[in-house]
């Protein structure tokens, strides 16, 4: 059994990222050998500062003391340290070209073995996008998939909540250490994920702050643990497209929700569909595709919109509102309502998630 301190220390080495770790693994060098062997294979070339840190660890210096401290903190906090040589390490994640050699887990580590679907999208999602993410996650979780996302605002949070409301575990992959919650407003959601039988997962040790470059890097874990990725809403340069690209490079399925051509948050999804992502209009589309691969998912499930209240969907005002933007004045000409009453009804429908008010224009989202 390898010493967890060796793995912790290996992740703290300077100039030692996941790609370098992957090359070491390819050369047959495990963490214990890296941290203790006097002579590494000739194919392994390390930088002087990396070698200095390794010698510091061997001599019981600051790096060794830091590794001991972090190991003790994990034990005290009830966190699981999952190394890449552990039987519990996710098989799919191990297959990517630069898997993290160590995962820090708060919650049930067994959920990492469940078939997972990544649900990602914009942090600044529309009301309709949030609703779609929630309902897709609700149905997909009920269909047998663990929902994996990044705990961010917007689509991520909605996906986690949908899975929780389905009574199923969900996984949040962090760009920080387990002792940090980013955004801080999602601390209650993070606790709900753990209490709901899910897990918070990160490759970063405690004390790691929410630095910008950590989040694109963690996206490979979100897609890497998942059999597929669903993008709900994404602008052309959205970070969620990084996750989708990682999924494509990893040979995983990518799904995208189409939207209005006038909605900038649909452009990223439309671009993915042009590149070969599968268009998803309902959760059945996804479960049918993935169920054929796994043979273990519950089919069929309801369309995300099936549980809408019939009275709302048959609302005569809602029927008059197109999915493309319509000016308030033009809509007022169509319906037999005073302007003040129309504004009141539009605000009601917006609060219920059926449309968005954009200045003088109205856009139906459901």
TrEMBL record:
Example of a GO biological process term: DNA-mediated transformation
Positions of the Smf/DprA SLOG domain: 81-290
Entries under Pfam families matching the protein: DNA_processg_A, WHD_DprA
InterPro entries in the record: DprA, DprA_WH, DrpA_SLOG, WH-like_DNA-bd_sf
Domain DprA winged helix intervals: 306-356
Family recorded in the similarity comment: Belongs to the DprA/Smf family.
PANTHER family linked: PROTEIN SMF
Family annotation (NCBIfam families): dprA
Name under which the protein is recorded: Rossmann fold nucleotide-binding protein Smf possibly involved in DNA uptake
Organism: Marinobacterium lacunae
Upper taxonomic lineage: Bacteria, Pseudomonadati, Pseudomonadota, Gammaproteobacteria, Oceanospirillales
């Amino acid at each position: 059994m390898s010493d967890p301190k060796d793995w912790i220390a290996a992740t703290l080495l300077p100039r030692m990222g996941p790609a370098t770790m992957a090359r070491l693994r390819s050369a047959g060098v495990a963490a214990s050998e890296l941290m203790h062997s006097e002579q590494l294979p000739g194919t392994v070339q390390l930088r002087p500062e990396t070698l200095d840190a390794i010698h510091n660890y061997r001599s019981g210096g600051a790096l060794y003391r830091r590794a001991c401290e972090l190991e003790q903190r994990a034990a005290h906090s009830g966190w699981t340290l999952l190394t890449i040589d552990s039987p519990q390490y996710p098989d799919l994640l191990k297959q990517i070209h630069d898997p993290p050699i160590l995962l820090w887990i708060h919650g049930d580590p067994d959920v990492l073995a469940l078939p997972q679907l990544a649900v990602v999208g914009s942090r600044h999602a529309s009301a309709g996008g949030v609703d779609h993410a929630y309902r897709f996650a609700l149905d997909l979780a009920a269909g047998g998939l663990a929902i994996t996302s990044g705990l961010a605002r917007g689509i991520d949070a909605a996906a986690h909540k949908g899975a929780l409301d389905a009574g199923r575990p969900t996984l949040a992959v962090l760009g920080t250490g387990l002792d940090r919650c980013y955004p801080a407003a999602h601390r209650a959601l993070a606790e709900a994920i753990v209490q709901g039988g899910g897990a918070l997962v990160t490759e970063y040790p405690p004390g790691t702050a929410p630095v910008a470059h950590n989040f694109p890097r963690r996206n490979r874990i979100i897609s890497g643990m998942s059999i597929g990725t669903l993008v709900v809403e994404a602008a052309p340069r959205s970070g969620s497209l990084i996750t989708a690209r990682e999924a494509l490079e990893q040979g995983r399925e990518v799904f995208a929700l189409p939207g209005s051509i006038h909605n900038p948050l649909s452009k990223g999804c439309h671009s993915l569909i042009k590149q070969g992502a599968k268009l998803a209009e309902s959760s059945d589309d996804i479960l049918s595709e993935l169920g054929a691969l796994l043979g273990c998912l519950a089919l069929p499930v309801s369309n995300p919109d099936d549980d809408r209240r019939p009275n709302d969907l048959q609302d005569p005002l809602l029927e008059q509102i197109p999915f493309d933007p319509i000016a308030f004045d033009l809509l007022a000409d169509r319906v037999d309502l005073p302007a003040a009453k129309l504004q009141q009804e539009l605000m009601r429908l917006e609060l219920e998630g059926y449309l968005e008010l954009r200045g003088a224009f109205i856009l139906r989202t459901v």
